[in-house]
Amino acid sequence: MPNLGELLELSKSIAAQAGQDLLSGLNQDHKNYFHILDYPKEIKTIADVVLEKEILQVLGPKPPLHLK
After folding, report:
1. 2 pLDDT band (50/70/90 cuts)?
2. SS3 18
3. Residue 10, H or E segment
4. Element (H, E) at 40
5. Which of 13, 22, 26, 48 lies 20 to 30 Å from 32, alpha-carbon distance?
6. Full-prediction pTM beyond 0.70?
7. 17-55: per-residue pLDDT in tens?
8. Of 6, 38, 24, nearest to 50 (Cα)?
9. Of the candidates 62, 63, 58, 61, which has an alpha carbon nearest to the alpha carbon of residue 9?
10. For residue 33, what are the β-bridge partners?
11. What's the distance, CA 7 to chain centroid?
12. C-alpha span between 9 and 22 (Å, rounded)
């Protein structure tokens, strides 16, 4: 299991790459926004969702091997 420093560096690297990927494909749709029902004061843009999905693909939980 990686140590905390390794996880931090991996997280920073993934976030930087996701940001670069987003910038290279940025369009007007990424400026659209919406409110979160559970947190009415929070506003999210489509760009936020794109970044979250890309980051969580790498860092998020993985299904058990027998389910793949």
Report:
1. low
2. helix
3. helix 4-24
4. strand 39-45
5. 13
6. no
7. 988 988 888 888 878 888 888 888 888 888 888 888 888
8. 24
9. 58
10. 45
11. 15
12. 20
